[in-house]
Design brief:
The protein is an alpha+beta fold. It has three domains: 2-128, PAS domain (Beta-Lactamase); 134-215, Helix Hairpins (Orthogonal Bundle); 218-374, Histidine kinase-like ATPase, C-terminal domain (Heat Shock Protein 90), CATH 3.30.565.10. It has helices at residues 2-23, 44-49, 53-58, 62-65, 72-79, 130-156, 158-177, 180-211, 224-240, 260-276, 308-311, 334-345; strands at 28-33, 38-41, 91-96, 102-113, 119-128, 220-223, 245-249, 255-258, 283-291, 294-301, 322-324, 330-332, 349-355, 359-367. It has a five-stranded antiparallel beta sheet with strand order 2-1-5-4-3, with helices on both faces. Strands 7-9-10-14-13 form a five-stranded mixed beta sheet. It has a two-stranded antiparallel ribbon with strand order 6-8. The longest helix has 32 residues, at 180-211. It is elongated and about 105 Å long.
């Protein structure tokens, strides 16, 4: 009798010990019986979900109800998935807390058996992994960026250099044969190839620097005319080569707060794209408007336009998308990525409207006043 009492007392101590461990765990633990009723919920459930232990006891559907609607199917599938050891596989999904916040959860559950080996319920263990998921996403983006970066270097930079090497070999041959007319033609081709390659290389280096926050950022108050002068002068020279009419629509000058060099880079890229994809004799217009506390700088063309299925790809480094201009010019998506980065740095947005066969409208939306520190 004394031994039996000692055994019971030891079991009580063990139960108290394990219950204390679970109650003080940062993980949210629970147990559901074979009727689907919640018979135990650890106190950490309220910290993680916002719902009290009593709310879980009184509503047996609550545990599944808080799972994000888009992840309900994932959770149901998990309930029937067994690994090679006959155990349920862990799963990650989102929950919606009582306050409406979305959290990522690492969920693991196991069947609970009685002394006869009969299943009497399920024990669930949950841990918040929201920060981990954010880091995973950042890491995936970084890897995709690195892969795209290498792809551009290995392909898009190698191709023009191969062309330059070919032209230089032919020019050397023509020098020997004193073929001046063909030399001039090849020199013209080489000049265009060098300009395009330099533009790509410059965008490549600037984009790489922007990813590491190594570009100086010096926002100040400038008039719109100060910002657009250099880019529009350069754009007019490019437009003239294709007999494109480039006009400025600015009723009244005003100030914007931004980094002038960054905006000049953005406008140069937008003008360059507009010229590439606008046919000979086409039109390009720079429309500048003040809308409340915002400045809208829009580069509008009547060029080839962009298919709606490709628009989202233009601003993603992991997506591979380029197109050919109306004179065979190669279009690189990297310039638009750089534009997006620089406009975002200036607390603005880069907007795009486009229709195939009609043209495109790229709008830089910027704050007029200082919002950089806001």
């Amino acid at each position: 009798m004394q031994n039996e009492n000692t055994t019971i007392e030891n079991l009580k101590k063990e139960l108290t010990f394990y219950k204390s461990l679970i109650n003080n765990s940062k993980d949210w633990e629970y147990m559901i019986n074979i009727k689907g009723e919640c018979i135990y919920v650890s106190p950490s459930a309220q910290e993680m979900t916002g719902y009290t232990v009593q709310e879980f006891y009184s509503n047996k559907e609550l545990i599944k109800k808080i799972i994000h609607p888009e992840d309900q199917r994932t959770f149901k599938k998990h309930e029937h998935e067994i690994d090679e050891n006959g155990l349920k596989k862990p799963v990650e999904f989102r929950i919606i807390t009582k306050s409406g916040k979305i959290e990522w959860i690492d969920h693991d559950c196991k069947d609970v058996y009685d002394s006869d080996g009969k299943i009497i319920g399920i024990r669930g263990s949950n841990r918040i992994i929201t920060e981990k998921k954010k880091l995973e996403k950042e890491l995936n983006n970084t890897v995709a960026s690195k892969d795209k970066f290498i792809s551009i270097i290995s392909h898009d930079l190698r191709s023009p250099f191969n062309s330059l090497l070919g032209f230089s070999e032919m020019m050397l041959e023509d020098i020997k044969n004193n073929n001046i007319s063909r030399l001039q033609r090849y020199a013209n081709f080489m000049n265009k190839a060098i300009i395009n390659t330099y533009s790509l290389l410059n965008n490549l280096l600037m984009w790489a620097q922007s990813q590491g926050d190594k570009i100086d950022f010096n926002p100040k108050s400038y008039t719109v005319k100060e910002i657009i002068k250099e880019p529009i002068d350069l754009a007019k020279q490019m437009a003239e080569s294709k007999s494109i009419n480039l006009t400025l629509n600015l009723e009244q000058d005003f100030n914007v707060y931004a980094d002038k060099e960054m905006l000049e880079t953005v406008l140069r890229n937008l003008f360059s794209n507009a010229v590439k994809f606008t046919p000979k004799g086409g039109k390009i217009e720079l429309i500048i408007e003040r809308v409340g506390n915002l400045a809208n700088l829009s580069v509008v063309d009547n060029g080839v336009g962009i298919d709606k299925h490709h628009i989202s790809k233009l601003f993603k480094i992991e997506e591979s998308f380029s197109s050919i201009g109306t004179r065979g010019e190669k279009g690189f998506g990297l310039g638009l990525l750089l534009c997006k980065e620089f406009v975002k740095k200036n607390k603005g947005r880069l907007l795009l409207q486009s229709e195939v066969g009609i043209g495109s409208k790229f709008t830089i939306e910027l704050p007029i006043k200082n919002q950089i520190q806001a």
